[in-house]
Write a structure and sequence with these properties.
Layout lengths: L24 E2 L12 H11 L6 H17 L4 E4 L14 H11 L5 E5 L6 H14 L5 E3 L7 H11 L7 E3 L6 H11 L8 E3 L7 H10 L8 E3 L13 H10 L5 E3 L7 H12 L6 E3 L7 H13 L5 E3 L6 H14 L6 E3 L7 H13 L5 E3 L7 H12 L10 E6 L2 E6 L24 H5 L7
Parallel strand pairs: 2-3, 3-4, 4-5, 5-6, 6-7, 7-8, 8-9, 9-10, 10-11, 11-12
Antiparallel strand pairs: 1-2, 13-14
Length: 450
């Protein structure tokens, strides 16, 4: 059975007018007490006044919002001007475009979210995004991922958030704000008490910033989810886990923690687990794409014997092998009854370990999601997971494999399910936040737009 492949997002420019546009994203909400007609007209007038070229993509999206408001007068509208639409070409938003757009939005309380991912707003757009956060109190969600924002732009947004009291979720993924910008966000968290989720993955943060966040989160009682994926480590001694482990001992509000590509080894896993022994809030732990082996699983298995809060663990792309997954399987069979989802994708696990994991699912009624693709499947493994699905111990949408039979032999094919498939991109149609493709966020919801 062939594998299903998805084309990755492209950041190449696609200028010019288009014949079709995606509809504006409007979430259900209460009826608005005041109407805000004419967003499109306001945008066109401002462009003329400022002698700016009209962006046809923005013009169309604002027109769609106008239609939605006239039909239902809804609140909770997310303005979707994402620049990575797959089906049509769009004219991506620049900093100058975002300048005009921010002036249009500041007087409309019906807009609660702005999704401007994969555009070219840069530091100029970051300046106006900061202004928007200061002047538009209804914005609770702002997505600026991959927008060529540098350190100075990150600093502007962070300083705006020192006074903002409404934004709940900020996504800065892929903007190279580096240590300078990262330190500004860490400073912001000492003051801001409303932001609940912050994503700074792939932002070229340094060790200094990781330490700063670990220190600040010992005191901050508002942040429920943080993503610090792929910091820049300059030596093998740059272990972020000693600081994060100490933070977990004192922080009892954090629900979701992403530490992908931190270069974590077994000693680092031990330090994290020491913190988890004393932590009573964390539900989603992501340590994928690290250097953890079977010995690190000894510490995690010990944690799972007593921990009753962890519900999702992502161990994808490590090297725990069969011995490591057997440690976990024994604990999941005999002790733990809180873990709901486990990903061991691409961990050099052979049939013995995978069968042990399948056996634990037959006994553990809470463990509902398991992801195993990229390991070493023999026929016994294929039969074991086929039986799990057939007997109802594992739902087809809760795993990334699907059994099929050829010449009376059972095989497993990959299916597009996972813990966070739509982290970097969302589909043009269908449910972008469904529990099958984004199980981690579905099982542990921290806020909207996850």
């Amino acid at each position: 059975m062939p594998r299903s492949w998805k084309k990755k997002d492209s950041k190449s420019r696609s200028p010019g007018r288009t014949q079709a546009f995606p509809k504006a994203s409007v979430s259900r909400g209460q009826l608005a007490s005041e109407s805000a007609p004419g967003l499109k007209e306001q945008y066109v007038i401002l462009c003329m006044e400022k002698s700016r070229t009209i962006n046809p993509f923005i013009e169309h999206i604002l027109q769609e919002v106008d239609k939605a408001m006239k039909k239902g007068m809804v609140t909770g509208i997310t303005l979707n001007i994402a620049g990575n639409n797959r089906l049509v070409q769009v004219q991506r938003v620049t900093g100058e475009d975002f300048c005009i757009l921010s002036k249009v939005l500041k007087n409309h309380s019906c807009i609660s979210g702005v999704d401007a991912r994969y555009n070219f707003i840069g530091n100029t757009g970051a300046y106006y995004a900061a202004k928007l956060l200061q002047k538009q109190p209804s914005i609770v969600y702002l997505n600026l991922m991959f927008n060529d924002i540098q350190a100075d732009g990150g600093e502007l947004i962070a300083k705006a958030l020192q006074k903002n009291k409404t934004l709940k979720y900020l996504r800065m993924t892929g903007n190279k704000i580096e240590n300078k910008g990262g330190m500004c966000f860490a400073t912001m968290l000492q003051i801001n008490s409303s932001l609940e989720k912050l994503d700074l993955g792939d932002c070229d943060l340094g060790m200094q910033t990781v330490i700063a966040f670990a220190t600040v989160l010992t005191q901050n009682q508002a942040i429920k989810g943080i993503n610090l994926n792929r910091p820049i480590m300059y030596s093998e001694q740059d272990e972020s886990t000693v600081h994060v482990g100490n933070m977990l001992k004192e922080n009892h509000c954090l629900i979701e923690l992403h530490m992908c590509k931190h270069g974590i080894k077994n000693d680092g896993m031990q330090q994290l687990c020491e913190g988890l022994h004393l932590n009573s809030s964390l539900r989603y732990l992501d340590v994928s794409c690290n250097k953890i082996t079977r010995d690190g699983m000894v510490y995690l298995a010990a944690v799972l014997k007593s921990n009753t809060t962890l519900e999702v663990i992502d161990l994808s792309f490590n090297r725990i092998e069969s011995a490591g997954v057997i440690y976990l399987s024994e604990t999941l069979t005999s002790h733990n009854r809180s873990l709901k989802a486990l990903s061991v994708v691409s961990n050099q696990i052979d049939g013995e370990g995978l069968i042990a994991l399948s056996n634990s699912m037959k006994i553990n009624p809470i463990l509902s999601n398991i992801y195993i693709w990229g390991n070493k499947f023999d026929e016994a493994t294929c039969v074991a997971y086929s039986d799990l699905i057939e007997e109802g111990h594992l739902k087809a949408n809760n795993t990334d494999v699907k059994p099929y039979v050829v010449d009376e032999h059972v095989y497993l094919a990959e299916v597009s399910n996972g813990l966070k498939k739509h982290y970097y991109w969302t589909p043009t149609y269908g449910d972008a936040y469904g529990p099958s493709t984004n199980a981690g966020f579905a099982l542990v919801p921290v806020g909207e737009h996850l």
